[in-house]
Fold this sequence. Notes:
By secondary structure, this protein is α/β, with parallel strands linked by helices. Helices cover about 25% and strands about 25% of the residues. The strands form three sheets. Strands 3, 4, 5, 6, 13 and 14 form a six-stranded mixed β-sheet that branches. A six-stranded parallel β-sheet has the order 9-8-7-10-11-12, with helices on both faces. Strands 1-2 form a two-stranded antiparallel ribbon. Helix 8 (about 285-295) links the parallel strand 13 (about 280-285) and strand 14 (about 300-305). It is globular, with a radius of gyration of 20 Å. The two termini are about 15 Å apart.
Amino acid sequence: MTAVVRIRPGSAAPAVEEESVGPPGPGEVRLRQTAFGLDRCGIEAPEEGAAFVPGVAAAGVAEAVGAGIEGIRPGDRLAYADLPRAWRARRHVPARPPGPAPPILRRGLAVHYLLRRLRRVQPGEIVLVTGAAGGVGRLLCQWAAAVGAEVVGAVGSEEKAETARANGCVHTVVSGPEDFASQVRAIAGGRGADVVYDAAGGETFARCLDCLAPAGMAIGFGDVAGSPPLLPLRQLEARSLVLARPTLAAWIVDPGDLLAASEELFELVGAGKLRPGPVRTFPLDEAGEAVRTLLDRRNAEYLALTA
């Protein structure tokens, strides 16, 4: 028997229960999981009224490998970044997704595809990052600065502006109910930003369009402020704007892509160009408090669960 975290219908709080885990089948690895990613992705029920296990990212140690597995042995440290139902002390995973375990796997891989593949940012380009003091935002700002972009960070307070500047932002704007597009355009010499990375969603995404230069690209990858509004395509014509609403899973489905992204990520972390920042951990049996901390936005550091 091993511990598993479930959210039952009618309860918003995760509860630790027990389940049995047998030997792995062909092509599977049984992981003893020791650390779990904690962000908004993966903590909402996939369908109303059903019990579910939260989480999509974890790291641990291979306990046993099934038939047909090559290159993975018991004792190897492994991690994955996009496999649902992650919050369990032991589980079977397909052998293909796990890879070497870094401290920032999911966020780092997300930043890689956003900045190096979906829109390969070039030196000298002006990049706007909303939520620049958040977990993904900080890494985005650091990585964009490392490739030579001029980074503008949009944040919710002066305190967060200091965090954004410490993570690569040359300029910051404090975004509130008032318009911030004019501030961004002024920073960009009246032309606007070349690309916007928006973690907020909601009306913030719509406002980001006004921050863009002609032929600029708006990439929405979060929904802290709600789902982005529906936008008519003709609204984009005047300045030939490009929109994207991507997901990590689509960009790491190929093992070669996953390996290449991981190698570039690890190289920058090893060179000190990407700094993950402080991590606050909760034991697995305090998953409820961890989720409340995340949803109430009471954390300035990364959150994680441990077993």
